Automatic annotation (TrEMBL):
The keyword Transmembrane helix applies. It comes from Microbacterium awajiense. This is Uncharacterized protein. Residues 1-19 form the signal peptide. Residues 185-207, 532-556 are annotated as: Disordered. The chain crosses the membrane at residues 223-244, 288-305, 317-338, 350-368, 374-393, 405-422, 442-461, 473-493, 505-525.
Amino acid sequence: MLRALLVAVIGAAAISPLAGLTLAGSHDAVAGESIVCADFLDAELAAAMEQADWEQIEISGPFGWLAERGGLDCVFGLPQSDFGWWTGYAPAPDEEELRTFLADAGFADGPATAEGAVLVQPGPTEPTPEFDQVCLLSQGLLVCEIGSAEPSTVDSLVRTRNALLAAGAVAPEPTAEPIVEADPAPVTEREVAPAETPTGGLADGPAAPSTLSGLRTPAEVDLRAGIVACTIALTLVFAAILAFPGKLMESAIQNNSERVSTFWRPVTALAARVGSWVARALRRWPRWILLSIGLVVAAVISGFVDPEFGFNAGSVRMLASSLVALVVDGLLVALLVAALARRWGLGGGIGVRLAAGSFVILAVSVLLSRLTGFVPGVIFGVIIAVTLPAVVGGRDQLRIAASETGYLLGIGVVSWFAYGALAEPLTTSGGIIDRFVIEALSAITVIGLSALPVLLLPFRGLPGGSIFSAGKIAWGISYIAAGSLFMVVLLPFPGSWEQTSAAFWVWVGLFVAYALVAIALWFILSRPRADVSEDETGPPADLPVGGGASSYSPDP
């Protein structure tokens, strides 16, 4: 199936020789030489991969158990993509022994074919569906790939077998000494990454990696012109979707504020009573204690971005890394902005406080990351706001907005490059302090860059609203810059539409849903109410009105 997709990329293009494909370990196939991954490709598939800019990815694939039997485990794909071709082979001198081993590992007979025995290990369906392992046992070789038990997959296995036989892959004579094998494990689509992802999980110990260790480094970013252009173009579309429907909705709500407040009055009244009670209860507590409690609660919520977060030593270490990131992106940025506001002489009463609504956004972002399997996740951790005087001019609001978003952007980028420089050496050492530092840098990057697309929304009360009021072009440039960086670091644009991950489509769906809801609200609120009489709406618009309707006197 994947082979057909790749071949379709080149259409009627000329077939390139295998030697033209730049693959790690490639060589001209000669019988008797050791087999390398390039030997899995016939001329047509090699040309298709070359045309599509695919290459061999040096990571461990799902067929390590084949390599232990004297074969190979190979992964081909596009760097920075979550989609690839997993394949492998092993010599099969004793086919009966191998079939017994595969049966014990969960393989069952697949579709019948004259080419040999097809064996399939179904992938699990929970918590997310995974592809099957499909193998062909034929002519002294066992050839496997990830896919489904379809005729196209069997055809692909046959062509791979033929390419290996042509390259000199032969089954050695069976030996009397048994070989101890490891059970093959199913693999999910998301396990193909641009770099080798850490193994294990939080339950494996305090130094075990979490989802935060899956952040891409700057060296792994795909900066080809097509990818960069598509990223900027898509961000521009998202910015337009946010700006125009959003401002229509905002203006409709403002023009119908009494109508909206009447509709939501039961909810707002209850929220006001609860908020008043909470404020009175917390008034006796020092502010620093409230901020500390809020940061710890936010760190706990952020931890659930990892499926294994819970009562284990690894989760405690992850909690500490997330807490450091929240202090930097939340508290430190708020204190820096407050210090600037005092320096600009904006008046008294400047300080910092917890932003209760941000906890809701944080929980929603973590939930979406879990539902989509998005790695390293989206974490909105800006939970501390700056308190300003009641009256602040438009120019000062713009300076405050630019300062807050600028600090987050700068800290996020610096942390990302620091993460890229330290990830490999600290991961190799494997200590708890090293893992703490790596994931603290990752969390600072994720939290800072995840907050920008939300904070720059063009609504009143958000930094983006102040920037939008100052100038639509300035807001557009700011949003495109922040949005493009968010996509490059956290949600890279796929190399082709066939390689698009679920997380990418979820974000596209969220933007589209937002636009549809905004337009629907604008349409509903802009329609005249049928239950409003003319006396309630006032006299016709073309009649001159003085101090009131009673002051109007028609000409004789």
